[in-house]
Amino acid sequence: MSQSYRLESGGKIDRAKPLSFTFNGKSYGGYQGDTLASALIANGVKLVGRSFKYHRPRGFLSAGSDEPNAVVQLEEGAYTDPNTRATVVELYDGLKAASQNCWPSVNHDVGEINSLFARFLPAGFYYKTFMWPPKLWMWYEERIRHAAGMGVSPMESDPDKYENLYTHCDVLIAGGGPAGLAAALTAGRTGARVIIADEQDQMGGALLSSHDEIDGKPAMVWVEETLAELATMPEVRILPRTTVTGYYDYNWLTALEKVTDHKGPGNGGDSVRQRFWKIRAKQVVLATGAIERPLVFAENDRPGIMMASAVRTYINRYGVLPGKEILVFANNDSGYLTAIDAIKAGARVYVADVRANPQGDLVKQAEALGVKIYRNTAITGTRGRKAVTGAEVMELNEDGTDVVGSHYSIDCDIIAMAGGWNPTVHLFSQSRGKLRWDEAATMFVPKEGVAINPSRSVGCCNGTMNLGAVLAEGLGAGVRAARDAGFGDGSAPEAPTATIVAEEPVRAMWEVPCHGHKKKFHEFQNDSTSADLQLATREGMLSVEHTKRYTTTGMGTDQGKTSNVTGLGIMAAAQNRGIPAVGTTTFRPPYTPQAFGAITGQNRRELFEQNRTTSMQPWHESHGAVFEDVGDWKRPWYFPKPGESMHDAVQRECKATRDGVGIMDASTLGKIDIQGPDSLQLLEMLYTNAWAKLGIGRCRYGVMLNEHGMIFDDGVTTRLGENHFHMTTTTGGAARVMGWLEEWLQTEWPDMQVYCTSVTEQWAVATISGPRARALLSELTDIDLDVDSLPFMGMTEGNVAGVPARVYRISFTGEVAFEINVPQAHGLHLWETLMALGEKYDICPYGTETMHVLRAEKGFIIVGQDTDGTCTPMDVGMDWIVSKKKEDFLGKRSFSRSDNIKGNRKELVGLLTEDPKIVLPEGAHIAAETDPKPAMGKYTKAAGHVTSSYMTPNITGPDGEGRSIALAVLRNGQSRHGETITVPLMDGRMVKALVTEPIFFDKEGERTRG
Amino acid sequence: MVDLTERVSALAAIYETGTFGATVDGGPSVAFSERRPLSIVHVAGKPDDKAFSDGVKTACGCDLPTTPGDIATSGDLSLVWLAPERWLAVCPNRGSGVLEAAFRDACGDSGAIIDVSHGRTVIRLSGANARTVLMKGAPLDFHKKVFTPGRAAQSAISQCGTLITCPAEDTFDVYVFRAFGQHMWEWLTDAAGEFGYSVETPAT
Amino acid sequence: MLTIKCPWCGDRDLTEFAAGGEGHIARPLEPATQSDAEWGDYIYTRKNTKGIHYERWMHAQGCRRWFNAVRDTVSDEFLAFYKTGEPAPKVEGDGS
Fold first, then answer.
1. Confidence grade of residue A117 (pLDDT, cut at 50, 70, 90)
2. Of B70, B93, B117, which residue is a domain's last?
3. Is the predicted pLDDT of residue A133 greater than 70, yes or no?
């Protein structure tokens, strides 16, 4: 395919490196250095996509990241990327792209029929039409989204790698155009750490597309010299292909670096595809340039209607002349730069200028070159279905509100819009900077930033459009930013001289008048027209944020980069007030779309979440344990034998432990070493019970309350010495308890001499439990396990399996149990030794599910399951653990608060279902009424809920087999033992259950103490 | 009897020496190793309590570093500032409980000495890209002029609390709770993949 | 993303810290003598200031020390950091 729009010479493409690619299945050629857009334009492709709402044919509008129209599906399969702007995709060999938002093809799009019904699709159409009935909205939404589809997400896992990278610098410069480079130069010379990032593959910004001169030489010579000097500075980092996407508080900025995207899928080698930078900068220099505005005239959306600056970029940077007959439509002088470059490149060029009588230097230059200029003239309509073929122009009246006289026609294949410039204030606004409306320049410019985000805006993004002034601003800002970061004295070198063009003022014309009802688009991606904005105003949408959402202005993937300010101008006129009074919508990060993959970085798949494993984990894994997450920990849930269901395994484990001996990995329990002369005093405040009389080598159970008097953790604490304790906490509560201790010690009781250190990770813990536990342990320890030497709630030290150990006689199962603590690196050895020796005792490894069942049989609570932050010790039947003698402990005062003494509290009870085979779902509500034959829907109030519920083989039902048990919280439950309550289930069943005391097994505790 | 010097590393199941990741001109630019076996003791006390500070000096041979992030060294032992009144003493394994006992004997009832030798996994990274690997995970400033040899900082990598020390130029030790050891190893080596990395024999 | 100056470790990322709410709320020395209203104030009532706020932070992924800060809740600007136990500095614009 010939590149018939490619110029013979010129541009910054490498003609020695031809590339081939396909678009919508058709092959084309381009060159290294092209973008997908420039290559398509070189091949004469103008129609590239369909618009969002009306499915109108659309072409390329811009040559950069502001592109709203040329949004394509890039690549296929796992590598596919939807909503990619063809204007920023660097061409590589073999690239595949396709139009999106059209069916069956971009040339024959069924959805275009929407266009015929356009008068029935006004602003707010979806809201108005699909509001009723409300429950159908989800149904409507799915269909609307399908019709409006914005590209297709990949269905396969992303094969590429991404990473995050944190960095710090003294001066971050966003934008590598003349202002940014100048700032980098002077900041870098001070020795400061400088990062300069630019979204393009080369530094230079607008200079890449211009014929400007600096110090009498082509501007790109200055760019090369600057880059060469920067390359010699070790503390300067130059990041091309990197867009600063977000500006957050305290000068924390994010930037997306496309490391290998330009090489094409699968060609990145070992490198990450994209790198997501998280940059903390002492000072920021914003040199983000400006974005040209379209003019909102009748039928301004046909393919071939482009931004004037984009036409210039295609000519100068890519050596592509987009059209043979170019009509420039301008309200300011910058359109003449395009006219001049286009006529020099061989096009026939016309200019329609809305200004009454422009006579600036550029105008005269253009006229001298043979550009035909229509002054005081507006475009009032365009022709061409899939590409523009001509325009109709008319003279403007004096105040520009109407067109007068007769119209005449101009044939053209490109209309280049020069509607003025919008400084790219996005990052500045994200930093909470305030904007100022410059009426003369018709642009929002930075007014003042906030103290926590020190930044300087320079160059075009500051409203400074003249190259010499841009360079001076950049040089000054760089050196002052460095000074404020602690480098250099802030004195800037003299700025080089640069091309100066005396420009005449812009003539603001937010909506170009025409006769008749023709669509004038200000927002191309979402098909929002000036009439939509005016309708929104008539319907009462005065706030800019409301209008935005009502008309979807600025809500596309381009976030309204080209459309926002023109939209504001039209709104302001409709509301008969000034643009500053209308205000802007909020600029939010990211500046350009960024892939979730890049944000996620390495933290995907097996690295998504941190895993915490005990030293015994290898055994669990090799013996088929099924794991559950408890906090960060992976804990064995149950150990199924081949063919066993979870139910089978848990029933077996429960029975084996009660009948013989079970073993469990309890290493995850939180453990805190407490030392210091005031340790006891601390415990007395933390726990509800009394600790003074606890002997050395003795253990005690305690509950911790918050100041609201509610249980938040429990555990056993052991006295190791006079002033030395070993506290255990729940697995999930370990960090919380440690934090609780530290908080009180540091903030309220700094005079207490206590040192708390987490030793959770130091100790591996195997708990053996059951009637044969003692016999097993006695085989591998020198410790005297006799009940008199090591009674229940006692601790002793000795060797177990040849390893120095602490053995605690603590029981969470209600059996004789030993918690054997050894240094973690010997944990696996301990476990394996116990398993080997335990074989003859039929030792049974069990997981957390069996632990839950066994403790529920005994009515031992699990904090956070049976309690929920509203339970006092009394509510769970633990009056016995609350000291009546202690004057104070955390939470005590709250016991007598009115809500806690008013009665009718939810209290812990046991439940036995009438049908012993029904296991109540945990969380099921208990009905407040006791009507024996209630109708569905009658229960309006809950009297409590089921907190724990299991099937157990250890408690037998009437049939002599195992039965279900449950714990629940029930209003006034402690005085309702013996009552029958009803639990309505989701499936409609009404389950009757007997309220009991919350203990089902060995109520006297004889087995525990034995 | 068990040989108590034979500690099972948290990395035992995945530790493999060799060269991994990208093939890069000039070879791998990050080297990993596990530092083990180590004696690690958590030392707490008031620096103005003379019995305590003298005891620490007697036990390990160096003064308590009191500047945040500083590391004092004496022979093969490092004393790392963790927090006001908190330090970590680290040295090659001296035997079960030996280092702890040395501190306790020297400090008497002053302060608190807790053996945490088994509770930490220590991963050493060295080489030209060691800093960059860490920069992928922690928001600290790893610049050569900022994170210099003899400095330490605590932060988080992949949501795991870490102590990172810089014992020598381009060399960093990452301390995590033992139970996070395997995750941290996998995370850091994944981060180093693009540079190519080697895994060396564990050493103290 | 706030930068918070830990009085010991210096400037660090917000991600390393845990917020501790309003500062300078002392636990009553004799809770038993507190009226329900007084005790309720202590455990529930907070100023929820728009503007200058004296608050607590903890360097959770660092030295694990609690400390105090003065922050303008409108601008998010920190005006002072100080150690627990030190008196609250007076800052400009503090209406309390």
1. low
2. B117
3. no
Single pTM value for the model: 0.94
If one counts the domains in chain B, the total is 2
Domain that holds residue B162: 18-36+119-199
Q: What is the DSSP string of A52-94?
A: TTT--EE----SSTT-SS-EEEES-GGG-EEEEETTT-B--TT
Q: Which residue among B83, B155, B161 places its CB closest to the CB of C8?
A: B83
Mean pLDDT across A130-149: 58
Angle at CA of residue B160, ends B158 and B164, nearest 5°: 95
What's the CA gap between A618 and B13, in Å, rounded? 8
Q: Read off the DSSP letter of residue C44.
A: H
Q: Is residue B140 part of a domain?
A: yes
Query: Residues 1 to 60 of C: which have CB under 8 A from any A CB?
Result: 1-3, 13, 18, 20, 26-28, 30-32, 34, 36, 39-40, 42-43, 56, 58, 60
CB A527 within 8 A of CB A147: no
Between A155-159, A289-293, A556-560, the lowest mean confidence (pLDDT) is in A556-560
Contact A420, A445 (CB under 8 A): no
Residue A782 above 60 pLDDT? yes
Instruction: Tell me the mean pLDDT in the region A978-991.
Output: 92
Largest CA distance in chain B: 57
Instruction: Name which of A313-322, A487-496, A578-587, C5-14 the model is least confident about.
Output: A578-587
Minimal Cβ distance to C66: which of A708, A747, A888: A747
pLDDT at B181 over 60: yes
pLDDT for A936 beyond 60: no
Question: What residue numbers bound the domain in which A675 lies?
Answer: 671-690+701-758
Nearest residue of C to residue A247 by CA position? C1
**pLDDT score of A553 more than 50:** yes
Helices A467-484 and A178-189, interaxial angle, to 10°?
30
| Bridge partners, residue A967, by sequence | A910, A948
Distance between CA atoms of residues A143 and A649, nearest Å: 47
Instruction: State which CATH number among 3.30.2270.10, 3.30.1490.180, 3.40.1400.10, 2.30.38.10 fits the domain covering C38-89.
Output: 3.30.2270.10
Residue A1's pLDDT is: 47
pLDDT at A53: 77
User: Residue B31 is part of a domain; what is its CATH number?
Assistant: 3.30.1360.120
Report which DSSP code applies to A154. -
Looking up residue B58, the CATH number of its domain turns out to be: 3.30.70.1520
Q: Mutate which of A742, A745, A747, A892 to disrupt the C interface (most C C-beta within 10 Å)?
A: A747
Helix (H/G/I), strand (E/B), else coil: A139: helix
Residue recorded with tokens 């032992």 = B77
The span from the CA of A317 to the CA of A864, in Å, is 65
CATH assignment at residue A916: 2.40.30.110
Domain regions of chain C by residue span:
38-89
Domain C-terminal end among B86, B117, B148: B117
- B162: pLDDT strictly greater than 80: yes
Q: Is residue B85 part of a domain?
A: yes
Which tokens sit at A42? 């070189």
ipTM attached to this prediction: 0.97
- Same domain for A684 and A769, yes or no, is no
Q: Which of A555-564, A669-678, A912-921, B12-21 is the least confident region? A: A555-564
Whether residues B129 and B173 share a domain: the answer is yes
> Is B103 part of a structural domain of the chain?
yes
Task: Report the domain count for chain A.
Answer: 7
Whole-angstrom Cα distance, residue A716 to residue B201? 41
B140: chain C residues, CB-CB within 8 Å:
12
| Same domain, yes or no: B128 and B175 | yes
Query: What is the torsion angle, in degrees rounded to the nearest 10, for the CA atoms of residue B108, residue B110, residue B114 and residue B120?
Result: -120
SS3 sequence, A888-900?
CCCCHHHHHCHHH
